[in-house]
Amino acid sequence: MKTPVNSNGFIQVALVVRDVEKAAQEWAELFNIPVPEIQIHDAGAGTDITYRGKKAAYGMRMAVIDVKDRGFVIELSQPTGGESTFQEFLDKHGEGVHHLGFEVGDKRDAIIEELEQKGYQMRTIGIYPGSSWTIVDSESRLGVNLNIKPKR
After folding, report:
1. Which domains does the chain have, with CATH numbers?
2. pTM of the predicted model as reported, rounded to 2 decimal places
3. For burial by CB atoms within 10 Å, which of 97, 106, 146, 150 has the most?
């Protein structure tokens, strides 16, 4: 790629789970850390989201495990209603790694444009105050989706 994704920008492993409380408890026990807070995101609250090119509204229960010493987070997502990339993944694959996240700074638009030219589809785009995220449908080519973020 002319504008490659820099591996130094790796920030996230995102898992789709059926029970976020159980998953958060298991991860906390594994790392011997406090159980992270469960965040509840109602359908369409505070963001401008598309899913497969159409306006989307879906619910999500999430927990974030900060792996500070390595510079990334493990994000646990439990879809709770509405069509979404997370529900699509859960229905198709069951629980597992949904995407890897990369912070790319001001190269975000160039990377997305180049990926689209290569035939990748943008599965979900979310815009929220101060940043955005784009889930690139790359499962069939890379074995996992990508999350391209301009900044944390």
Report:
1. 8-149 (3.10.180.10)
2. 0.91
3. 146
